[in-house]
Write a structure and sequence with these properties.
Elements lengths: L3 E10 L5 E9 L4 E5 L18 H17 L6 H12 L9 H19 L3 H5 L11 E8 L12 E7 L3 H22 L6 E2 L5 E2 L4 H19 L2 E7 L6 E2 L2 E3 L4 E2 L1 H15 L3 E3 L7 H11 L4 E4 L7 H9 L5 E4 L1 H4 L2 H13 L3 E5 L9 H9 L3 E5 L3 H16 L3
Parallel strand pairs: 4-16, 8-12, 12-13, 13-14, 14-15, 15-16
Antiparallel strand pairs: 1-2, 2-3, 4-5, 5-8, 6-7, 9-10, 10-11
Helix pairs in contact: 1-2, 2-3, 5-6, 7-8, 12-13
The structure holds 2-phosphoglycolic acid and zinc ion.
Length: 403
């Protein structure tokens, strides 16, 4: 059994230019792994703290004083390293050492172990019964609003949900939906400036309904042309515009019942296959109402509602709040906790969607987490090196899959 012979943590920048950290883990066998941790902008209230109170400098200090001494000599096992990170931290929300340093160290350890064993990361992480031949749907970000865009709609993400056994077909279809929407926006306002948001989706002055219309039209065309099942989806990130018990859109203000009716209406009108965070992050019962109304037609997904935490997800399972959970490693800080939640979904026969963050790094390990989880979907932007890195890694895994 090898041990941790060296660990390092260094500051780097994410795709928004914000400071985060990258970890390197060296095993006594000579194997090495390096990974960085992404950052969110529309973060859930129940996520771990990404950094101690004074940010990256505090994380580097905590690493030198508390983390490195604990990790050096630890058995080279993901569970042992993650347990040592929790002990070094000593808080419930990772505010001692930071959830981002913990994420980077946990994933770097896994990558070093994969290298040591001469096998791909997904095999090391694979859940029982996962053989690497079932590829996730692509949940691809096409139009940005909310906190990820300036001047766009107030709904955060308009998504193309592309499902095909072969990743090159699902990725190709999602990319074509993105491209078609860009072409439609240019045709509609040839003089207007057109930009892209934090996750690579288009940003234009559109109402929510106009954005859904463009998305549906592009999905319909690409589905017909490519014969790939690609349908519209949405991440409302509704907690971002929920204030004093009301959902406050630019165009309307709704109470909880009004929001249930509005979102169920969107599912019917636009044929949505996927609905993420349609309510505030404490609204387990409103989610359950929507799940009862549309759950047979659309996947209702909890992101801010659960923040990848098993305890919150258990509440959602009991109340039948959603059909799926979004999985983000740095919402809980370690691979052990992440896969604990994934396993809870699997035993409860609920779907997982493995997700990027809005501030990302040009690394591909997320595709391995998705494949290893037997995830229903991989949620990822479609353009930008930090997004394409994950899509390309999924393509590679598709080529390597046994026939
Ligand atoms: P975040 O947003 O990475 O900014 O938290 C992504 C999402 O809400 O899914
Ligand atoms: Zn979300």
């Amino acid at each position: 059994m090898s041990r941790l012979a060296g660990v390092d943590l260094q500051p780097i920048f994410d795709s928004r230019g914000q400071a985060t950290v990258e970890a390197t883990v060296l095993l006594s066998s000579g194997a090495r792994g390096t990974a960085g941790a992404p950052s969110g902008a529309s973060t859930g209230r129940h996520e771990v703290r990404p950094f101690p109170a004074d940010g990256v400098p505090g994380a580097l200090r905590a690493f030198r004083e508390r983390v490195r001494p604990k990790l050096l000599g630890t058995e080279a096992q993901i569970a042992a390293v993650d347990a040592a990170l929790r002990t070094a931290d000593g808080t419930s929300d990772f505010s001692g050492i930071g959830g981002n340093p913990a994420t980077a160290l946990s994933v770097a350890t896994a990558l070093a172990l994969a290298e040591e064993g001469g096998r791909p990361l997904w095999r090391l992480l694979a859940r029982p019964g996962v053989d690497g031949t079932a590829f996730p749907a692509i949940v691809g970000n096409c139009l940005n609003g909310g906190r990820h865009a300036i001047g766009g709609p107030d709904i955060q993400e308009f998504l193309a949900i592309a499902r095909d056994p072969r990743p090159e077909r699902s990725i190709g279809a999602a990319l074509q939906v993105h491209a078609r929407i860009g072409a439609a926006l240019r045709a509609r306002s040839p003089e207007a400036a057109l930009g892209r948001g934090d996750e690579g989706g288009w940003v234009a002055r559109l109402t929510n309904v106009e954005a859904f219309e463009l998305l549906r039209e592009a999905c319909d065309r690409v589905r017909d042309e490519r014969k790939v099942d690609v349908r519209p989806g949405v991440d409302l990130a509704a907690a971002e515009f929920f204030r004093d018990g009301r959902y406050r859109y630019r165009e309307q203000t709704l109470d909880s019942d009004g929001q249930v009716a509005f979102v169920a209406g969107l599912v019917d009108r636009f044929g949505l296959a996927y609905v993420e965070d349609p309510f505030d992050q404490e609204a387990f019962d409103a989610h359950a109402e929507l799940q009862r109304a549309v759950g047979s037609r659309a996947l209702v997904v909890g992101d801010d509602l659960y923040t990848t935490r098993a305890d919150r997800f258990r509440r959602g399972i009991e109340r039948k709040s959603t059909g799926a959970i979004l999985i983000k490693v740095n919402q809980v800080g370690t691979l052990t906790e992440t896969f604990g939640t994934v396993d809870l979904a699997r035993t409860s026969r609920l779907a997982t969607v493995t997700s990027h963050r809005s501030g990302e790094l040009p690394e591909g390990w997320l595709a391995h987490v998705a494949l290893a989880s037997g995830a229903w979907g991989l949620k990822c932007g479609l353009l930008g090196g930090e997004r394409v890195a994950k899509l390309n890694e999924l393509l590679r895994l598709g080529r390597a899959a046994p026939p």
